[in-house]
Write the structure tokens for this entry.
Amino acid sequence: MHQPSPSRTWFITGASRGLGRALAVVALEHGDRVVVAARTASADTFDAEHRDRVLALSVDVTDKSAVDTAVATAVDRFGRLDVVVNNAGNLSMGMVEEFTEEQARAQFEVNLFGALWVSQAAMPHLRRQGSGHILQISSVAALGGFPSTGMYSASKFALEGMSEALAMEAAPFGVKVTIVQPGGYWTDLYTAMVSTSPAEPYAPLRAQLERQWADGSVDSDPRLAAEAMLTLVDTDAPPLRLALGSMAYDLAHDVSRQRIETWAAWEQVSRAAEHAVPQPEGGR
């Protein structure tokens, strides 16, 4: 650990509510500056004592040119970026077969492409500084695909694959990337979600899922996640991934163990599928 730099500048998407807002509040309480980038961004919703350190920018992260302008405006105002948080996201629930093309594409527009546009816009500034930390807010749903979360999981899997590559590309410039995998927190992710039109053949599976969820939520105060992320950015050697919450932590171990066991059980078949031979004439 090291002492945090004074007056860091955070650029947080989706910061007008939920996890993004909780993170903005915690950062401001620690004396940092925050760029609140959201469709409904407003500095007036934060305590008056902090507003001189808040820059509110109305941004749709699916609009690449708007994202580029917002990042440039943030740098012009505060001189630098220290922590970029891709928190904006949405949730679409439904069986994979039920998704319309429009619904499937919309899920990726925010969760993957929104984060991509912000990362691309921020990287030139972070490279020139030789420092910075990008936090990609993923989900426990990126640990595996589950019934009714297929498209959401797919968008978060894609985000994590992109972010793993970005982490290796950014490292030589002194820029860090961490994939944050939150479990359940009391945000409006579920109340604002989009649902597919239920197909009758999946009624029994839906009933089974409803019984599993009937015990209630284990969601937590998003401030706990925000404080964990503050600890994360205060660390000299942050991890590539950070699971937030016992549920996410335990599931990560369970899923990883199951995959390792499956790979081991099928090792002979896997290895038999490879045997190097000279390149055939005429190319591949």
